[in-house]
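Support case: D-glutamic acid complex. Customer-provided input:
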Amino acid sequence: MIWLFDSGFWGLTVLKEFQDLLPQYDYCYFGDNARCPYGDLSDETIRQYTEEWVRFLFDQGATIVILACNTATAHTIRYLQQVRFPDRKILGVTIPGAEKVWESGHRKVGVLATESSVKIRAYKERVRFHDETILVQEIAAKELVPLIEQGKYHAPETIAATRRYIMQFDSDIEAIVLGCTHYPIIRHHIEAILPYMPLIDPGYESARKFKTYLSRHPDIEQGISRGGEVRFFTSGDTENFMKIGNDILGKNITCLTSLRP
Ligand code: DGL
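Agent response - structure generated as follows:
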């Protein structure tokens, strides 16, 4: 089973990309809604929460865990892969996002992300890993997550905040990375402000890379159950999860189980 982990609802935007590209597999999605947002937490706390849940998901029988949350990935991926779970398969969204910057041949890109992702230079470091001459300008879009959490996707204040952040980028950036799970829902606002700017969506890139990853690892691919089923879990309120989840995915979902660490 493929498990996607996120701090809350919006990793569902990543799940959507996986389901669109790889509909044949079964998925489980877990959102740590009781402790969301992670973007305001300390490095240590993000590590602790993410590790706790990843361990739990493997205990539930996960074949592979995908960190759908940019913030959680940025703070934990190397530590989880190399130190805590060296024998397990864990992937995270920032890595395919950064790879796409490099593959596209951009020389300078902007990244919108949470404050804690920007603080640890989440994308800057990851892009440097491929090519240290690529310039990465990261902007902490502090107001966007709270506005989107309140459901104000189309509100004038959300459009105004998006414009304010986008305008902070240098005029010579060649693409913008949507470095947080919440931003695909406001993608059209960015496109309206900068119509010709290429946008990189790490969720989509993760699904694309995962597809090639599985073709290179038939042993793992064969261990993943098929059937196109999705099960949803939250550490928060299941009713609320279903309400917002329906909205994000554009279909009715059932979330019956509230998990506690
Ligand atoms: N899911 C997080 C991300 O992609 C944003 C929300 C949060 O702060 O928990 O960075």
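The chain has two domains: 2-92+204-258, 95-202.

Case will auto-close in a few days if no follow-up is received.
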